[in-house]
Write a structure and sequence with these properties.
It is a single chain. By secondary structure, this protein is mainly β. The chain has no helices and 29 strands. The protein starts with 20 loop residues before the first strand and ends with a strand.
């Protein structure tokens, strides 16, 4: 079993690591995890002594995003080959390395993007979903039919790095420094936040507050009801903010991973960014590219490893 503060042992001895870990996800209970290395996806279980419980080739090229459906029985992947694929966990089984020659025929495939898929978000417990792409669009999909229901166009042909849905609103953050708001039903753009400096790497919503992380290391807070000026902003990294995760128990607490090897906790109070509380990391000099959580722990992704941390940070500024 995994120890607190330890790295996740997620690669079996017979599977040589050829690629960096691109992305990962963890179930709310912490019992199931999934991650992608190159075009391969791996499933692992906290409850199994063997660690990895399944391996499959997900895409023809690198897998950029991987998420567990809310049921924790199905996996969603998006890749550099422009496709989305949906997998049942029972069909991702232990396999020998030579199975890399073919993609499992158990995957449901959705096509329509003309660029690599960078992010996804679920709607209605996974019956529908959003995907954002290097082709400058966000697409709304009906999973049972694998059909694209609507396409939300960004203002320029740039990479849409992140997407999220909130009731009747779709948000899309791009390399052009834009966070565009769309009406879910009509597909029309209803507002635009522009950050004149760098890409919008990540965006999350906490109540009426949007939290944005930028490619030049800034955190920005916006009120969704008045987006003309930010509520607050702070320079938190010398390089970039790579990911944001809202705490499951307190919407005023969030976690970030940065390009200069920081995993930190912040709070929101009266529209302001609170003090930073930092975590110790077992890997130095690598970007923290993704942050996830289960009911008890945080998980951070660097290029070569996934690490597990108690939610209580060790330092405060």
């Amino acid at each position: 079993r995994m120890q607190e503060g330890s790295e996740v042992a997620a690669t079996p001895a017979h599977w040589p690591r050829e690629h960096r870990i691109n992305c990962f996800d963890i179930s709310e209970s912490g019992e199931i995890g999934v991650h992608a290395e190159g075009e391969m996806i791996m499933c692992w279980s906290e409850m199994r002594e063997a660690g990895v419980s399944g391996i499959a080739r997900a895409h023809l090229l690198d897998t950029y995003t991987i998420k567990l459906f809310p049921s924790n029985q199905v996996i969603l992947t998006g890749g550099a080959d422009f496709t989305l694929r949906v997998w049942s966990l029972e069909h991702v089984t232990i396999a020998e390395p030579e199975t890399k020659k073919g993609i499992s025929n158990h995957a449901v495939q959705m096509t329509g993007h003309t660029g690599g898929i960078l992010d996804t978000d679920f709607i209605e417990k996974g019956r529908n979903l959003l995907s954002s792409s290097m082709d400058g669009t966000v697409k709304y999909w009906d999973v049972p039919t694998q059909e694209c229901v609507n396409t939300f166009e960004e203002v320029s042909r740039c990479h849409v790095k992140c997407c999220l849905v909130d009731g009747t609103t779709v948000w899309a953050g791009s390399d052009a420094g834009n966070l565009a708001q769309f009406d879910f039903s009509s597909g029309e753009k209803t507002s635009l936040i522009h950050y004149d400096g760098a890409a919008i790497h990540c965006a999350r919503r906490s109540d009426h507050v949007l939290i944005l992380g930028t490619g030049d290391g800034n955190l920005l807070l916006y009120d969704t009801r008045n987006q003309e000026t930010p509520l607050d902003h702070a320079k938190v990294s010398k390089i970039s903010v790579e990911d944001i995760e809202i705490d499951k128990e307190s919407s005023s607490v969030f976690y970030i991973g940065t390009g200069d090897n920081q995993l930190a906790q912040y709070s929101i109070s009266s529209g302001n960014i609170g003090e930073r509380r930092q975590y110790a990391l077992p890997v130095e000099h690598e970007a923290v590219r993704a942050v996830k959580q289960d009911q008890e722990f945080l998980y951070s992704l660097c290029s070569s490893s996934i690490s597990k941390h108690p939610k209580d940070p060790i330092t405060s500024d």
